[in-house]
Amino acid sequence: MLATELKRHGVDDVAVSAPDLRRLADACGGVPLALALTARRLAEEGPQSAPDLADKAERWPADASIWASGGQSVVAVFQWSVAQLTPVQQRAFRLLSLHPTAAFSSAAAGAVLGRSPERILRRLAQAHLLQYESYQRRWRMHDLLRRYGRSQGEAHAVADGRDVAFRRLMEYYLQHAEAADAWLREENPPGSSLFTSRKQALEWMVGERASLVAAVDCCLETGRHRWAASIALALAEFLTGGQHFEDLLHVMRAVLESAAPTADDRYTRAAALNNFALAMGKTGNFSEAMDALERAADLHHKLREGHSAYIVMLRNLASTLLISNRPQDAVAALQRAAESCQGPADMAVRAQVLGQLGIALLEADEPHQAIAPLKETLDLLAQTDAPALDRAMLHGRLGTALARSGARNEARAVLNSAVGLASRDRSGDQPHRAAVKETLGRAMLESGLPAPAGLLLGEAAADYLELENLRSAAKAHNDQGLALLETGSGDDALRALEEAKRLYLHLGDDMRAAQCTNNVGKVLRRLGEQGAAIEVLAPTAQALFQAGDEAGAAEALLNLGLAQLAEGLLGQAQEALSASADLHGAVGNLTGRAHALMGLGRAALKKGDLHAIEYLQLAIEAFRQAPSSDGKIDALLLLSDVLETSGRKEEARAALREALNSDEGPGTADGNRIPLPS
Question: Are the C-beta atoms of residues 132 and 117 closer than 8 Å to each other?
Fold first, then answer.
């Protein structure tokens, strides 16, 4: 709109820098007269005056000169509009400018005015001092009007009872935020009358989120630190659950940087530090998160709560870091927590910490290190009456760690125990049972037990669909397809994968759908339908790379290259496999890189290229370093044959001896790692 006004006044908007143009447009707040007067001033004074005009516009109405020219004045227009109101309505206009955001509900307006607001709000809207946004059911006061209203309100503060109105508004937000928070933390909390259901409380929080965050700032600006802290803490559960971590960080930082607390404020400050740490962990500053937790722990110690609160905070931080796909940082937090719970009285807490640590180590691709904490967790739980499903879930995690570490026989024994535990469950907890089935199914697939894996994953998918958990159902169907592929049931595998893809597309998750398409291509390749596989995989690899999923693109390129190799398209196969090897190396998947290098070795052999030996040696070295060594024996045997043919008999015999002495590790064909469910 400002650009249009500038052109009408003969000013080229390109002559004004984009930041200054944006500042001026924002300051005008969409008011036509302000836009016209700004354009006129720029025409008179030249585009070079834009920064100075923007400064003045942002100070309006303290500096009224910016929008006063030729007998026209924005102030005069606003004064005329307000003069048409009754004294009660004028007072209402001034008080409503108190609200911390431009948009507010009728209930918030009633809190400010201390009376039923509907008639007054409609009259202000008729005078064009408010707008009603029916789709959000909120009233909006343009920024210029708010600034004018505040300047007038300060001049009439005593007569209007401005401080009392502000107190009413903040009390309204605090009482409702605390009541909504209680509903979010437990069903039907005692003494709750402001809300009648969790759904109603959540809807209120969603609608008032921006106002509540801004209310914290308003309270701090006016010296009301306790109100600010109370509103911020009432927001913490909602902001964390909704993953609004920037807002959580903002309100907690504001509280922590406010005036130093008294001894009575230690509980508040410790809670704020905990929530601040969660937000910092989510937004990427792990060192500052740990520092905040240390300070919170010190306050809890002074409050004689010992180290238990510190351990809870570390576990919360670790959960946030795992959600943020930062497993190494989660491991560091949990290792610190484990160090803090060594005594006999800490047995139950230590079991929780070590179980979480084992899962984090698996996520960090350190299965060997995950085994010890998971085994200790199960030993500790055996001494308690822990639910059967909890123990079965941990058995599943241990089975995965053992399988990925090469101990398949031990993994299978652990998983058999897990199935027995799960069968004894009588809790009726269907969501937990579905999650246990999924975890055990994936672990069995990695342990070389695809038939029972397919059954469990199919049952998990059906349970998730019954629970209307479509995302988890899609994940289970995807893994069911991979399990069925390993049993030789190619057509059933395709049906499961297509169902997973359909669900992801229904959820709008195009990247996960593309990952399922990659698995469809893999099945087609294994079924010998190389042409169909190439047709599916070529666009999928490109789509995954463009979406930023380098790991998915690396797997798709591997499957594409192997299909092209089988079709005799050697040049195309080498291009795809080379890109796959590079991408697998970049994301740290040494098993995938090894399979791509082995494919390059096969392609070179078909072309009579002596670089085949070099590729196979690189593949074997990658297999040696990888957590999963499936395929290493094939690579060694192939290298032995090539070396023998080339007359390098001693090297050939060494490769053959290593193959005979090798014990294949876990994984699936082609080295495609199946990630743990989150």
Answer: no
* 575 has pLDDT over 70: yes
Neighbour count for residue 10 (Cβ, 10 Å): 9
What count of residues does the chain have? 678
Provide the b/e sequence for 190-215 (b: ≥16 CB within 10 Å): eebebbeebeebbebbeebbebbbbb
Q: Tell me, what's the pLDDT at 266?
A: 55
* 334 bridge partner residues: none
What Cα–Cα distance (Å) separates residue 427 from each residue in 394, 423, 538?
17, 11, 47
d(CA 372, CA 481): 31
Which CA distances in Å does 600 have to 127, 532, 659?
76, 22, 20
| Per-residue pLDDT, 669 | 38
User: How far is 109 from 129, CA to CA, in rounded Å?
Assistant: 14
User: What distance lies between CA 434 and its chain's CA centroid?
Assistant: 23
How far the first Cα of the chain sits from its last, in Å, is 47
Residue with tokens 């919360």: 316
- Look at residue 672 and tell me whether its pLDDT is greater than 50: no
Q: Provide the pLDDT confidence category of residue 30 given band limits of 50, 70 and 90.
A: low
User: What's 266-327 look like in SS3?
Assistant: HHHHHHHHHHHHHHHHHHCCHHHHHHHHHHHHHHHHHCCCCCHHHHHHHHHHHHHHHHCCCH
Q: How far apart are CA 667 and CA 627, in angstroms?
A: 9
pTM of the model: 0.56
**Contact predicate 593/584, CB 8 Å:** yes
Taking CA atoms, 421 is separated from 100, 323, 396, 447, 544, in Å, by 55, 28, 11, 19, 39
pLDDT at 675: 35
CB 6 within 8 A of CB 13: yes
Task: Give residue 186's pLDDT.
Answer: 74
Q: Which residues of 232-257 are buried (b: 16+ CB within 10 A; e: fewer)?
A: bbbbbbbbbeeebbebbbbbbbbbbe
Name beta bridge partners: 236: none
Residue carrying structure tokens 């297509």:
498
The encoded tokens of residue 552 equal 């998915």
The 8-class DSSP code of residue 145 comes to: H
Helix (H, G, I), strand (E, B) or coil at 631: coil
Q: What pLDDT score does 610 carry?
A: 76
Residues 131/140, Cβ–Cβ less than 8 Å: yes
Tell me how far CA of residue 205 lies from CA of 98, 107, 113, 191, 217, in angstroms: 20, 14, 22, 19, 17
Stronger pLDDT, 569 or 429, i.e. the higher one:
569
Using DSSP's 3-state secondary structure scheme, residue 192 falls into coil
